Amino acid sequence: MKQETIDRIRKFTEDRDWDQFHSPANLAKSIVIEAAELLECFQWSEDEYDLQNIREELADVMIYSQNLLDKLGLDADEIINMKMSQNEAKYPVEKAKGKSDKYDQL
Q: How many CB atoms lie within 10 A of CB 1?
């Protein structure tokens, strides 16, 4: 995410004095709630959906995720790269390519 966008999220929260409500648990709950709303976009059809509604719900997930990163003092690039390294070790290309099996089933 661009720094300008991160700064805009932070300013939005700061201007409204909402950080007081942003405990890690509350933010994690909000991410799950918004993710459920994103999933709802596909509730009755995987092929017919409202892309604008998906954009809005996905944005909500990302905004709350950025707020949780800030609250816990985490860096998105650092934790994503850490997880990608773990995933690459668990799902080596030669075993996982073209398969949807869980790592312990490869």
A: 13
User: How many helical (H) and strand (E) elements, i.e. helices and strands, does the chain have?
Assistant: 5, 0
DSSP code at position 73: T
pTM of the model: 0.91
Place of tokens 């950080």: 19
pLDDT tens track for 12-21: 999 999 999 9
- DSSP letter, residue 103: G
Continuous H helices in 1-106: 3-15, 24-40, 51-72, 76-90, 93-96
The DSSP code for 105 is G
Is residue 47 a contact partner of residue 24, using CB atoms and an 8 Å limit? no
